[in-house]
Amino acid sequence: MTQLAVSNGAKKKNHRSAFARKQNGMSLVVLLIVLSVAAFFGMFAFKVVPSYLEFLTVKSIGNDIATNAELLKKPKSKVMQAINQAYRANSLYELKPEESFVLKKDGARGFLVQIDYEKRATLFSNIDVVTRFNHTYDDI
Q1: Does residue 34 have a pLDDT over 60?
Q2: Tally of structural domains, the chain
Q3: pTM score, whole prediction
Q4: DSSP character for 91?
Q5: 53-101 confidence digits (pLDDT tens)
Q6: Quick check: is 107 in a domain?
Q7: How far is CA 125 from the centre of its chain?
Q8: Is residue 113 part of a domain?
Q9: Is residue 33 part of a domain?
Q10: Is 2 inside any structural domain?
Q11: Could you tell me whether strands 127-137 and 110-124 are parallel, antiparallel, or unpaired per DSSP bridges?
């Protein structure tokens, strides 16, 4: 009887160790899925973040233009020329002031400054990421 009890104990112990060996980490399939999802979000961030950083620069330029009361009273072409110079000084060569800024006549103030444009970036193949930016400088 003693041998039988030892034998059953050994079987239980082996059963536990076999169960523990089965649960020792992620499978290769799960690892590939996690890496694929991480790669997708990394690629998405790689395409979108530069557009947002560019928008922060455009927004800063818009703030400078909107707070310059003397410039806003000049003709629209002079305001656009000032925006274009600011774009070149900040290395924004792909944007054109006419495509990103909207200037509306606003009585004694001169012009109301508004940013309105979108950027497209190819995510992969025929799938694009479109980011649309809009900001109005009202109470400056």
Answers
A1: yes
A2: 1
A3: 0.74
A4: T
A5: 999 999 999 999 999 999 999 999 999 999 999 999 999 999 999 999 9
A6: yes
A7: 19
A8: yes
A9: yes
A10: no
A11: antiparallel
